[in-house]
């Protein structure tokens, strides 16, 4: 028995040595980086999966702003700092426009080829993305004006805050309801009432999926899928949350199908059903129900969590920096009539308010480490040859906090977006929506939402801490999006 375990240990040690030598050889084909070890790769150096922007910036100090980290046995190219992110994603944008299908993504796609927008690559992605962009644009025009819809939601939100009657409240759920209702109106053609239980369940499912995406479970799933598939708890619950959202989408589609078609484009589902009908005689139709469900899923998830989290940070910063809040309100009072609802066009006369919103996005860096990309062919990033099928991870936060680009990167400072005359000025390194061919599809919608919600809330209320509360925690909670810790604020109508 002793001899057997000695032999097994020896065999295992031999395996480790062989793997170590192989890894060192493979390393030569990628940009430099810390030495990986068998099985774990560089995970021990990342404090086991803490893909923190600062840890990556620390590694960049020793290995350069483009370096390789091994997640288990998988090499991942990290782009750190604005210049590296820009060079990596925009020099040959088509070559790095793929999305890696990691084991968990594969499970989310029910082990089928990835469909929709977010997870897809190649022809499927190109068609779904183009169609979705075109449709969002189309629905923003004419009767179903998106901006009008956002103003309506801003009105409901002001009402919700007013109903709290100045008592302490956590604004997170109210913001989620408001923001999500905008994307619901676009894709489903209707909004939900604030106390609709189905809507609440959907939003809870979205929140769980995003939390999981930033968790240790998710990272472990991608490195040890065969183990994690058997583990009960968060991975299984996330897949069931995805299924609940998809089954809701299916129901909405069948309601649309039973209603039949109309001339006017009413909503995203309506437009997609018409597109399926139009392309059904093609040899390999690009539009089908499977892609429709996944595209709607992508729009609903991305369109709910991101803008509402940013607005939550915005309110937290306003109580943390009351002088900034007062300056925004002074500008609004001097520019907008008391009864008027602020619209997106007003941003041109509200440069300080606009600068504050941009600074909220920069400073909160909600998508801290960007979304992974995949090289779809052999390519070059600067002097480094990158083989087809390599994962590339842009450290978006490192660009938004790059000391070469921002005067005071670690301070909340709206002057980053103002010129000497106090006029609004955007900066090239402002890339919260990422850059390149896969940059955020909802950027325009998000910008309009953030401006209209934020400015109308500050026009209606002054936000302050509950009595007796002196400390504010502005550190983020790690997750698929960086979230503020639980906090309560009070509203004082103006
Ligand atoms: C503050 C709000 C938002 C931020 C910071 C944000 C940020 C991002 C980022 C960083 C990406 C990854 C891009 C890449 O792979 O390089 C992304 C992708 C995406 N976003 Fe957003 N987003 C926001 C709002 C929205 C909204 C409102 C929608 C819905 C209309 C949306 C829909 C999408 C979609 C569908 C993708 C996938 C694009 C693709 O793979 O081609 N996002 N977003």
UniProtKB/TrEMBL annotation:
Its cofactor is heme. GO terms for molecular function: heme binding; iron ion binding; oxidoreductase activity, acting on paired donors, with incorporation or reduction of molecular oxygen, reduced flavin or flavoprotein as one donor, and incorporation of one atom of oxygen. GO terms for biological process: organic acid metabolic process; xenobiotic metabolic process. Residues 1-19 form the signal peptide. PROSITE patterns: CYTOCHROME_P450. Coiled coil: none annotated. One of its GO terms (cellular component) is cytoplasm. Keywords: Heme, Iron, Metal-binding, Monooxygenase, Oxidoreductase, Signal. InterPro entries: Cyt_P450, Cyt_P450_CS, Cyt_P450_E_grp-I, Cyt_P450_sf, Cytochrome_P450_fam2. Heme binds at residue 440. PANTHER family: CYTOCHROME P450 508A4-RELATED (PTHR24300), CYTOCHROME P450, FAMILY 2, SUBFAMILY AB, POLYPEPTIDE 4-RELATED (PTHR24300:SF411). Belongs to the cytochrome P450 family. This is Cytochrome P450 2J4-like. It comes from Eublepharis macularius (Leopard gecko). The lineage of its organism: Eukaryota, Metazoa, Chordata, Craniata, Vertebrata.
